[in-house]
Amino acid sequence: MMDILLDVLSEEVSKCGRHADNGFKADTYQLVANAVNAKLGMTINSENVRSRMKTLKKEYAVAKRLLEVSGFGWDSVNKTIVNADANAWAAYIAVRILDS
Length: 100
Fold this sequence. Notes:
The protein is α+β, with helices and mostly antiparallel strands. The chain has four helices and four strands; from the N terminus they run αββααββα.
């Protein structure tokens, strides 16, 4: 589902700029829902897509913060975040506690 969602959003942005300054236009979410429903036989709606995008933004923010901490890196072969040791996690957690 995520692949379809991202492919449709990418297509819409590149071919006709169907996004507002702060995100996608409402009808773009419905286009994504229609594509997912057609390809996977599901019955999602535009609000389901909008909700998934909010979740994806949060997950992206966490991944971005991890990659900014010393000791974490990106494995381009497996497309995943890797860390060198437990000290990297301890540093990340300490920063997150201070931010709270």
